[in-house]
Amino acid sequence: MVHDNKKLDPLDGLRAPQDPACDVFLTGTVFLDIIFTGLDSAPVRGTESWARGMGSSPGGVANMATALARLGLHTSLAAAFGDDHYGEYCWDALEQGEQIDLSRSHTVSGWHSPVTVSMAYEGERTMVSHGHEAPPPGDSYPNCPPRARAAIASLRPGSREEWVLHAASRGTKVFADVGWDDTGRWDLAGLADLEHCEAFLPNAEEAMRYTRTDCPRAAAHALADKVPLAVVTLGAEGAYAVDGSTGESASVPAIAVEALDPTGAGDVFVAGFVTGTLAGWPLADRLAFAGLTAALSVQEFGGSLSAPGWAEIAAWWQQVRTCAGQDPAALRRYAFLDELLPAAARSWPLRRAVPTIGFRAP
């Protein structure tokens, strides 16, 4: 077994010379995230609050891209980057730090990077963002996504993304999430790109509103009539999935953890589920793995900063098996990790590095 996050390949043994070089393609907006931690409560109007910690990292779509890359998937991101120092930092952190392919990304002259300031306290976070929409890229920018095993799309009511159709027509499995419908219509027919998707992963509230049901499991079954694989996340109650092609369903409870910051947990869940799907794992194992990676992420601050790699997962698995009083049935649920994980080289709990901006190389 290997001990390095970057060397563990979850698709080892499945790759063939004719396969695409890209495992997962995604596109979206990259933010610079500035996260204040160590706040005991929300800031009070008219006062100054001092945080005990701070970190900076690429955010927005970079949360998902980082989570995928840290799980060993060859990840390609198409995004606009400002030509300011923030944009340079985000580009370097993703390309050099996470080995994400940015060959389909571009730098926009005179456009400043979108910024989000996040304040984490009491297991929640408050965010303030600012940014302007990037101008459209020039003719030299590739309109078609690369050949890829999978792509991740964020569906918007009443909107269609041409790249989703291009990707699906070339055999790419499209995984989709969705945001809150500000129109209040909650019309599945308005999600035009859903017909091209392999899997749809809404949360329970979104799923029930779109299907006009009052139960997340009923919503998942209704969605499975529209998309091959429906996955409904249930927050602290775990997740439920239905494979519409086989009729198989699976339910996995959430791992109870102390949540420090939920930023990016949904992105990490999707990344874990995509990883298991591309690796050909059983449905219940995919759900369990996605839930585990999300649980590990909320125990750290930040979005992309908190995404776990294989070393973190291995350290967790080693730790829980040596703790007294563990439920044997719960341990068996994660026994599939034995065949996947490197031997844990570090002890649990782990602290991930928190980067900042401004240090110069000696």
Structure overview:
The protein is an alpha/beta fold and 362 residues long. Helices cover 26% and strands 21% of the residues.
The end-to-end distance, rounded to whole angstroms, is 35 Å
Radius of gyration: 20 Å
Strand order of the largest sheet: 4-1-9-10-11-12-13-14
Shape annotation: globular
Q: Which structural category do the helix and sheet elements fall into?
A: alpha/beta
For the secondary structure, the number of strands is 14
Helicity, as a percent range: 25-40%
Mean pLDDT: 88
Order of helices and strands: EEEHEEHEEEEHEEHHEEEHHHH
Please outline the major beta sheet.
8 strands, mixed
The unreliable regions are 1-6, 350-354
> How large is the share of residues in beta strands?
15-25%
Helix tally? Answer: 9
Short summary:
This protein has 362 residues and is α/β, with parallel strands linked by helices.
Strand and helix layout:
Layout: E1 22-27, E2 30-37, E3 53-60, H1 61-70, E4 75-78, E5 80-82, H2 85-97, E6 106-108, E7 115-121, E8 124-130, E9 148-155, H3 162-169, E10 173-178, E11 199-200, H4 204-211, H5 216-223, E12 229-233, E13 239-243, E14 249-252, H6 265-278, H7 283-297, H8 310-322, H9 328-333
Parallel strand pairs: 1-4, 1-9, 2-7, 5-6, 9-10, 10-11, 11-12
Antiparallel strand pairs: 2-3, 7-8, 12-13, 13-14
